[in-house]
């Protein structure tokens, strides 16, 4: 997610410094090159050696130490940064930045950088609610500084309330968002994901092997690209993507109702869910007891949500998925035409690395004009980005482009 990016991580003095260690690990794992700047107070909580070992780079803390004979430390760090993160950020540090005070390496470097600055505050609840602090935060926001709000919880000082440093995973997500071009800003995207579950009785059900990973990755990447995203998901073990509105359903009928209720205010629909084609015609209210006799269950068809949307899609852009085990292109083309889709993401789930419950996929993209684009095996997060790039291109070409009320052309 951050491959090739240079990030400066500023660490100020507070008990939450230990979480900055985990944040550093996540940033490096995401592919970033990280340069750590520590205040003198931060070094009282965690030694620079810890950050140096995990980053693979020297830790900087002295304002007047030169990185090399030709480089002035704070200017060199400021210029190389694609993003500057301050986590944890104390009230003292935020106050100095708001007032333009640059009296140590960290504040001097922030003042000198032209990169986006992402600040994650951590402090006592009374300090966080202090009107002077609130004014300082608002002042920085007006100048374009980004903030990751702290959460409520038990604080090290014994108080409980706002002021606890946000989880490193959330700060990472905000860092990725800060560096992602917002090419889908203004678009309202509805994504479906996961399996549906059709009950036979209170303990048994019909379902499939879908993990939901593909749909969740699409929702996450669409949100990073600036879209307003709603995810309608069947039962999964996945955490909700940060910043995405999530609606949880169980059956195909529940998914259909949720999707249709959202359709009117949706510009793009991406149906990645593996919806059960059939459900038991009748559900037993009690557990069905096992017996020596064979058991037959009569099934009836579930609503075809994708076809229903295709029949009334208007100028919306509609993307579907085709999971097949034979004649991939033929079956996916038939689905595209029958359900009035703009794009189909087709994969042969019998291929190794392309089935359910794995982190990779091998996809072919089929377009309305007959083009077939074969993609190599890649991670589902990467594939989600590729799919959304094609969605951007299709919208740019006018495919499914609905004029929003109040736009110049609409007037």
From TrEMBL:
Catalytic activity: N-[(R)-4-phosphopantothenoyl]-L-cysteine + H(+) = (R)-4'-phosphopantetheine + CO2; (R)-4'-phosphopantothenate + L-cysteine + CTP = N-[(R)-4-phosphopantothenoyl]-L-cysteine + CMP + diphosphate + H(+)
Free-text comment on the cofactor: Binds 1 FMN per subunit.
Gene3D superfamilies found in the cross-reference section: CoaB-like, Flavin prenyltransferase-like
Lyase in keyword set: yes
GO term, biological process aspect, one: pantothenate catabolic process
Residues covered by region (Phosphopantothenoylcysteine decarboxylase): 1-188
Cofactor list: Mg(2+); FMN
Start and end residues of each Flavoprotein domain: 5-163
Cellular component terms per the entry's GO annotation: phosphopantothenoylcysteine decarboxylase complex
GO molecular function, one term: FMN binding
Pfam families listed in its UniProt record: DFP, Flavoprotein
Keywords from the UniProt entry: Decarboxylase, Flavoprotein, FMN, Ligase, Lyase, Magnesium, Metal-binding, Multifunctional enzyme
Annotated pathway: Cofactor biosynthesis; coenzyme A biosynthesis; CoA from (R)-pantothenate: step 2/5; Cofactor biosynthesis; coenzyme A biosynthesis; CoA from (R)-pantothenate: step 3/5
Residues where CTP binds: 277, 287, 303-306, 321, 335, 339
EC number(s) given by UniProt: 4.1.1.36, 6.3.2.5
Record: active site: 157
Family: In the C-terminal section; belongs to the PPC synthetase family.
Listed NCBIfam families: coaBC_dfp
Function description: Catalyzes two steps in the biosynthesis of coenzyme A. In the first step cysteine is conjugated to 4'-phosphopantothenate to form 4-phosphopantothenoylcysteine, in the latter compound is decarboxylated to form 4'-phosphopantotheine. Catalyzes two sequential steps in the biosynthesis of coenzyme A. In the first step cysteine is conjugated to 4'-phosphopantothenate to form 4-phosphopantothenoylcysteine. In the second step the latter compound is decarboxylated to form 4'-phosphopantotheine.
The protein, known as: Coenzyme A biosynthesis bifunctional protein CoaBC
Lineage: Bacteria, Pseudomonadati, Thermodesulfobacteriota, Desulfuromonadia, Geobacterales
Gene field: coaBC
């Amino acid at each position: 997610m951050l491959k090739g990016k240079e990030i400066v991580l500023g660490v100020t003095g507070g008990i939450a410094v230990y979480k900055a260690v985990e944040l550093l690990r996540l940033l490096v794992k995401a592919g970033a090159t990280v340069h750590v700047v520590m205040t003198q107070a931060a070094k009282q909580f965690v030694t620079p050696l810890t950050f140096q070992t995990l980053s693979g780079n020297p830790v900087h803390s002295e304002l007047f130490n030169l990185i090399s004979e030709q480089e002035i430390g704070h200017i060199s760090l400021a210029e190389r940064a694609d993003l500057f993160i301050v986590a944890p950020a104390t009230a003292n540090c935020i106050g100095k930045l708001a007032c333009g005070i640059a009296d140590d390496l960290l504040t001097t470097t922030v003042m000198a950088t032209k990169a986006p600055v992402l600040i994650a505050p951590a402090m006592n609840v009374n300090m966080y609610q202090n009107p002077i602090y609130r004014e300082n935060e608002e002042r920085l926001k007006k100048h374009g500084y980004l903030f990751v709000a702290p959460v409520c919880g038990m604080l090290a000082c014994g108080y409980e309330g706002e002021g606890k440093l946000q989880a490193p995973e959330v700060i990472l997500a905000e860092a990725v968002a800060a560096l992602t071009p917002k090419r889908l800003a203004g678009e309202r995207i509805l994504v479906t994901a996961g399996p549906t579950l059709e009950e036979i009785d209170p303990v048994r059900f019909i379902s499939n092997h879908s993990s939901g990973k593909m749909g969740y990755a699409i929702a996450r990447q669409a949100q990073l690209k600036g879209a307003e995203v709603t995810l309608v998901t069947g039962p999964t073990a996945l955490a909700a993507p940060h910043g995405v509105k999530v609606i949880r359903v169980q059956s195909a009928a529940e998914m259909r109702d949720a999707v249709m209720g959202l359709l009117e205010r949706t510009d793009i629909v991406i149906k990645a869910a593996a919806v059960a084609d059939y459900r038991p015609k009748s559900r037993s209210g009690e557990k069905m007891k096992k017996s020596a006799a064979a058991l037959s269950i009569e099934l009836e068809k579930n609503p075809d949500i994708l076809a229903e949307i295709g029949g009334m899609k208007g100028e919306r852009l509609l993307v579907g998925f085709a999971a097949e085990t034979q004649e991939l292109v033929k079956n996916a083309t038939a689905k595209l035409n029958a359900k009035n889709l703009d794009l189909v993401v087709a994969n042969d789930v019998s291929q190794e690395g392309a089935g359910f419950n794995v982190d990779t996929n091998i996809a072919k993209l089929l377009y309305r004009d007959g083009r077939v684009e074969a993609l190599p095996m890649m991670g589902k997060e990467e594939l989600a980005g590729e799919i959304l790039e094609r969605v951007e291109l299709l919208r740019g070409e006018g495919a499914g482009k609905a004029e929003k009320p109040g736009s110049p052309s609409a007037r």
